[in-house]
Amino acid sequence: MVLLVVLAAVSWGLGSFTSLRITLPGDPLVATAWQLLFGGLVLTVAGACAGEGLHPSAFSATSLAALAYLVLVGSIVAFSCYAYALAHAPISKVSTYAYVNPLIAVVLGAVFLDERITIVTIAGMALIVASVVVVVRHEARRTAAVRAGAAAEAA
Prior knowledge:
Blueprint: H1 2-19, H2 28-49, H3 61-88, H4 91-94, H5 97-113, H6 119-154
Helix pairs in contact: 2-3
Protein name: EamA family transporter
Domain EamA: 2-136
Pfam families: EamA
């Protein structure tokens, strides 16, 4: 299991890095579709190798609604936004989504599933938000310094 988590993190990072260096389709939705297709194929193979199977008898209205939500919002909308952001913002800012997503998941779990949010959870969420703020502010300062240096050279 740990190997799969590491492989997933490496694959995501490698995909984000290479997406800036290879020719992608001009339409972000087409690029997103290709990325989701290949990601789905890799996960299907990994699941088959791990002995996972499809059990239609275990489907319920709730599980099908959750799947529809994940396909529409979690994949199509969110991944399209991510691909757009990668093309238009520094990767250091775009990558902060990875820290914010668990925060959103905790809040959604509390709102829709009545999950408890403890003081430890709140402390962790505060640490995540503070970390994202530090990364974004550092990137903004670095960008401003580069612009100032370029302006000084041009003058």
